[in-house]
Amino acid sequence: MTRPTLLIFTKPPRIGVSKTRLAKDVGRAEARRIAHYTTAKTMQAVKGLGWACELHIEPARAVGETLGGLWPAHIAHMPQGRGDLGDRMGKAMENAPPGPVIFIGTDAPAIGQHYLLRAARDLRHDGAVFGPAADGGFWLLGLSQSLRDRRVFEGVRWSGPHAMEDVWSNLPSRAHVSLLPQLIDIDTGKDWILFNRQSQNRRSAARLI
User: Fold this and answer.
1) What is the C-alpha radius of gyration for the chain, rounded to an integer number of angstroms?
2) Residue 108 near residue 139, CB atoms below 8 Å
3) What residue ranges define each of the domains in the chain, with the CATH number in brackets?
4) Spatial CA neighbour of 149 closest among 207, 201, 192, 94
5) The pTM is what?
6) Do 106 and 19 contact (CB within 8 A), yes or no?
7) Residues sharing a CB contact under 8 Å with residue 157, sequence separation 6 or more, in sequence order
8) Most buried among 19, 33, 90, 98, by the most CB within 10 A?
9) Nearest to residue 108, comparing CAs of 192, 190, 33, 179?
10) Alpha carbon distance 185, 198 (integer Å)
């Protein structure tokens, strides 16, 4: 299996920089704490993976930071660049080494390394894989080498309920699409409540086994 390049899109967990929608619901300090938590969970899932990884950071002035080790120094840091999310993802994909690519953000704290490994297994010839988010977007997108084409991101309605649907519709008919389990991206206070409720239910179920 060819190892993919993991492209992680992130912002520093700072007041006024990340989780601005969440801050309107839970307050700026709590939103910053949650952003730190979700980023830490993502970095935990990536640790020891053994893949080429890149942190694509917004704003560009934060590229040289490690945030006290939250962003590992051994992972390449680079700015996301200009344009909408599709423009920035397209640029990252074009500049990545040959082979499959997997995009993730740092907003889905239920992410685990087993999901990343499963996604990589699904990226065989003409393979694409989505990790659907509860809001209609996606927490993961994987593309095989043969599907690395910027047109995948054209006309996508980002930050809305149609983002995954739009990217999927841009894939060529030959693409073999796989789905990972749906996770929650923490963008609003409602998302945070739902995530904690699901986490509590899983812990309760585990105690009963």
Assistant:
1) 17
2) yes
3) 5-208 (3.90.550.10)
4) 94
5) 0.94
6) no
7) 163, 166
8) 19
9) 192
10) 13
